[in-house]
Every structure is written in C-alpha cells, then in structure tokens.
Design a protein that fits this description.
alpha+beta
C-alpha cells in the first residue's frame, strides 16, 4: 500500500512561514494516524492552522500509482 499526502502551499507565504505551517501539519496528522486502520480507501482532509482545507491524505493500494 501507499500513503499519500498532498498539501497546497500558499505561494505568497515566505519560505519560513511555509516550513512552519507544513511542520505543524505533519506533526498533527502524524500524531492522529493511530485513529485510522490505514487500509486502502482510508483518508481525510488536511487543514492548516486557520482551519482551512489545504489538502488530503489517503491510503491507496500499491497498484494505484
């Protein structure tokens, strides 16, 4: 299986702001993964610190490249 994470980054943000926000997203979602079975088909929307949807994570079968 494959774990996919796609985040839309704010192009107007500085590199430092982008890195800080992406780090927060990765820590938050990494800490919440234990709530999921992590089977193909699992996934969820990803939100930034302003609670705006900025992406999605999903688990897909290895054949779904």
């Amino acid at each position: 299986m494959k774990f996919r994470l796609e985040i839309d980054m704010d192009e107007a943000a500085s590199a430092e702001e982008s890195a800080r926000e992406l780090g927060r997203i990765l820590r938050y979602w990494g800490g919440n993964l234990h709530h999921y079975a992590l089977r193909p088909g699992d996934g969820s929307a990803v939100h930034d610190s302003g609670y705006r949807e900025v992406g999605r994570w999903s688990v897909v079968s290895a054949e779904a490249s």
